Amino acid sequence: MIQVELPAHLRTLARVQSTVELEVSGPVTLCSVLDALEAKCPVLRGAIRDYGTLKRRPFIRFFVCGEDWSHEAGDRPLPGAVAEGREPFLLVGAIAGG
After folding, report:
1. How is domain 2-93 classified at the architecture level of CATH?
2. CA distance 27 to 94
3. 95 Cβ partners below 8 Å, 6+ apart?
4. Is 7 in contact with 91 (CB distance < 8 Å)?
5. What residues contact 88, with CB distance under 8 A and at least 6 apart?
6. Over pLDDT 90: what percentage of the chain?
7. At a CB cut-off of 8 Å and minimum separation 6, what does 47 contact?
8. Which is nearest to 64 in space by CA: 96, 29, 94?
9. How far is CA 72 from CA 1, 17, 36, in A?
10. End-to-end Cα separation, the chain, in angstroms
11. Parallel, antiparallel, or unpaired: how do β-strands 19-22 and 2-5 relate?
12. What is the pLDDT of residues 33-62, one digit of tens each?
């Protein structure tokens, strides 16, 4: 089981707890995790990635094993610790301002 932790605004939107458990068939990649998350919580479609391009929305960041994966290729395999559920896949709401 892959553990996905969502920021408060997405938890509220999806009506879930902080951690969502996902089963991903096939290679565990950035895109396959996001696809599984959107399949389990359809209300998140369009909130994390653009509907048409599937590019990450501004102000959403992805963190894996303490590293920022926000600009990684979608087909890059996630580390074994995430694929095996030992480490969470984090979605973080970025903050901007002045």
Report:
1. Roll (3.10)
2. 28
3. 59
4. yes
5. 3, 4, 5, 19, 82
6. 84
7. 10, 13, 57
8. 29
9. 22, 27, 18
10. 39
11. antiparallel
12. 999 999 999 999 999 999 999 999 989 999
Q: Residue 15 region, left (φ>0) first, then alpha (ψ -120 to 50), else beta?
A: left
Q: What is the 3-state secondary structure (H, E, C) of the chain?
A: CEEEECCHHHHHHHCCCCEEEECCCCCCEHHHHHHHHHHHCHHHCCCCECCCCCCECCCEEEEECCEECCCCCCCCECCHHHHCCCCCEEEEECCCCC
Task: Locate 28 and state its tokens.
Answer: 């565990």
Question: Tokens 């938890």 belong to which residue?
Answer: 11
Size of the chain in residues: 98
Segment 54-85, tens digit of pLDDT:
999 989 999 999 999 999 999 999 999 999 99
Write out the two tokens for 83.
């694929």
